[in-house]
Amino acid sequence: MDEVGLHGYFPVAPRVHYEVDFESPLFFGQEVYTVVELTRIGTTTMTFTFEVWGEEFRGLPRRRAARGRYVTAHSDRSHRSGAASTPWPEEWITVLREPA
């Protein structure tokens, strides 16, 4: 989010759902490569998918260690609205929908 200028995202976007399938072990000292992709922007939530790859290590080939998805919800930090979540700012949606 910082890369696209949304520096205030993390304090107002708690994860509300998280699921992961673990496919192979990782080891201490092993390098990993992680891919995170925004796959859906809703009115008050965003859904991301991710993969974690373990790089070649001690004779073991590079392989996917985990994959999953998580959902964040926009939160009014003041909690004055009384709602569990509030709509994303329009300017954030515009930035996130711009082609990379």
From TrEMBL:
Superkingdom of origin: Bacteria
Taxon lineage: Bacteria, Bacillati, Actinomycetota, Actinomycetes, Kitasatosporales
Gene Ontology MF terms in the entry: hydrolase activity
Pfam family, one: 4HBT
EC number of this enzyme: 3.1.2.-
Name the UniProt record assigns to this protein: Acyl-CoA thioesterase
Regions crossing the membrane: none
Source organism: Streptomyces kaempferi
UniProt domain Thioesterase: residue ranges: 14-56
Keywords: Hydrolase
InterPro entries the UniProt entry points to: HotDog_dom_sf (IPR029069), Thioestr_dom (IPR006683)
Root EC class: hydrolase
